[in-house]
Design goal:
alpha+beta; D-amino Acid Aminotransferase, Chain A, domain 1; 5-stranded antiparallel sheet; binds pyridoxal-5'-phosphate
């Protein structure tokens, strides 16, 4: 039986009840975080904690026990017997349940804190052979730096990608490539690695941050500059990053090959270095 976490308690997931007045349900008034369990440790929990606290502070939700999250996550892994499997822990914090009105409820209303763990099988074959993506207008709001649960534009765009047999939808805002529906995106043009700078138009991905560090350590020329859609034909390589897929090569955009249609050398190097770092952390 699956065990989940709600407001300080570990409970059978099928017994968990959340109020219909919860502002997460009524307004998508909440934020979330996802951490990856690598059979023994959570990867870069410190960065996930920083982003969690930042997201909460940007939307003015106060979960005073936020520092318990690493323990909650560890307990969910143990209670669900996921210690020896790749897993993800999902956490959501909403502004709590209150009579429906746009204004924040009184400070007495406690946030709703829900978390669960799930095992997953990394799709190593796809990650090795590469993925297809589509390019679409960024129809999201202008605070994509907040990990908000309000994901309808991401859901609709991602579904369009899936309906067209692709893995991800990459967004374009004002002619510039921002990020994916659930990932950051990187490009290699003439040996230089490009990704959109941290801004209100992209999420500061934890994987993005680590891949940039690994790339710089490897002596790769890195530029945190947005790539215009008009340069798409010049791409030698492209890849996405996120917590579950790590580094996933992009081999086609809207059915047109990127580079020679195979994962590129820089991408493969970064994939290998990322995996080596995980292996070293496993000890
Ligand atoms: N951008 C968006 C919109 C995302 O939803 C995600 C992850 O879910 C990312 C980027 C990548 O972030 P991370 O590497 O922290 O998983």
């Amino acid at each position: 039986m699956e065990t989940a976490y709600l407001n300080g308690e570990f409970l059978p997931k099928n017994e968990i009840r959340i109020s219909p007045d919860d502002r997460g349900f009524l307004f998508a008034d909440g934020i979330y975080e996802v951490v990856r369990w690598y059979e023994g440790f959570f990867f870069d929990m410190a960065s996930h904690m920083m982003r969690l606290k930042r997201s909460m502070s940007e939307i003015r939700i106060s979960w005073t026990d936020a520092d318990t999250f690493p323990f909650v996550a560890q307990e969910l892994i143990t209670l669900n017997i996921l210690q020896d499997r790749p897993a993800l822990v999902y956490l959501q914090v909403t502004r709590g349940a209150a009579k429906r009105t746009h204004a924040f409820p009184s400070t007495e209303v406690k946030p709703t804190v829900y978390a669960f763990a799930k095992g997953f099988r990394p799709d190593s074959e796809t990650m090795a052979s590469g993925i297809g993506v589509i390019l679409r207008k960024d129809i999201r709001w202008s605070r994509c730096d907040i990990k908000s649960v309000s994901l309808l534009p991401n859901v609709l765009s991602f579904q369009e990608a899936r309906d067209l047999g692709n893995y991800e939808c990459i967004f374009v805002r004002d002619g510039l490539i921002t990020e994916g529906a659930h990932s950051n995106v990187f490009f290699v043009i003439k040996g230089v690695l490009y990704t959109h700078p941290e801004s209100e138009n992209v999420l500061s991905g934890v994987t993005r941050k680590n891949v940039l560090r690994i790339a710089r350590e490897a002596g790769i020329n890195v530029r945190e500059i947005a790539v215009p859609e008009s340069r798409i034909t010049e791409l030698d390589e492209a890849f996405i990053t996120n917590t579950s897929s790590e580094v996933a090569p992009i081999v086609s955009i809207d059915n047109k090959s990127v580079g020679n249609g195979n994962p590129g050398l820089v991408t493969k190097l970064l994939q290998e270095k990322f995996v080596a770092e995980i292996r070293a952390l496993k000890g």
